[in-house]
Amino acid sequence: MIQRSLAGALGALLAADGLAMLIFPLAWYGAVPGVITTGPFNPHFVADIGVAYLTTATALAWFALDPAVAWSALAIGSLFLDAHAAIHVVGAVTSPACGSLILRDLPGVFVPALLASALVLLPPVRQGAPQ
Predict the structure, then answer these.
(1) Sequence-distant contacts of 45-48: CB under 8 A, at least 24 apart
(2) Is residue 27 very low, low, confident or very high in pLDDT (cuts 50, 70, 90)?
(3) E strands within the chain?
(4) Domain locations in the chain?
(5) Which pLDDT value is given to residue 127?
(6) Is 39 left (phi over 0), alpha (psi -120 to 50) or beta?
């Protein structure tokens, strides 16, 4: 049951973030710490990432509803979050501001990736087993 709850909560948060990127891209760009330091506002890029977040949120929601069937979707969604986090790690370790960048990205980039990866790595929920 905790796997499903965690997947549902994480999916809802990522869906909200993805929708904000699609509906209010300029406001999202200005509100998220560190985003403005990545370069000028690019609405197409923000929308692309918003769609990736919504896709990942859908995988998490599907897993929350039917973990036995949707584990592979969860794994693919987690792969995006992990790759995104890896990009942030590389950017941080190649910067003199490494520690502050890691701390800045911890809640919005690293924690979601770690939680999704934990869901992937936990023993799969079997159909008919208590959840």
Answers:
(1) 46/21, 47/21, 47/22
(2) very high
(3) none
(4) 2-121
(5) 52
(6) left
